[in-house]
Amino acid sequence: MPLTRIKASVIIDGTLGTADIADDAVTTAKIADDAVTAALLANAINTDIATGVAALPKSGGAMTGAITTNSTFDGVDIATRDGTSAHKNEAQTFTAGQRGEITALTDASSIATNLALSNNFSVTLGGSRTLANPTNIVAGQSGSFFITQDGTGSRTLAYGSNFKFVGGTAPTLSTAAASVDRIDYIAKSSTIIHAVASLDVK
After folding, report:
1. Interatomic CA distance for residues 92 and 86, integer angstroms
2. CA 65/CA 53 separation, integer angstroms
């Protein structure tokens, strides 16, 4: 005798549980178009976000709290910093050493620098060069250029018009082979870089 189709309307609430449904029994083909709506998923997804994102890595171990719908992390409102994270719009005291990498520049007749990539730069001069005006100059950025003479030495360095030195006179670099000079700078504006040189540092 063929089984009569059981309609959802005759199933008592709570009598059909997950354990009663065989693995892979409910397939995409058996779900009617538009049967699963955004409204049906809303509560389940919100619950999962609030309780199931507890293992994201962070320094010192796994995250102990969840990212919830009210923008909190470990029970702290993200808008109010948690006391250990860096925030660009707050005065902060760092309790461990902070550093910026020294990015190597490509030696060329005109040496290009992109200040968006780093604060500190280095280059070994293979000939008489010009340190061209950097790109992406932003007021307040500061750092250093480490200038090294190659094994021949006697290389000169000119500077782009954005570089401004004390008294309006650019420094003359050390000329001995392998000698090192350092030019410290701070950007006053997007077109003006104040600079000072420390020569023959050894």
Report:
1. 8
2. 8
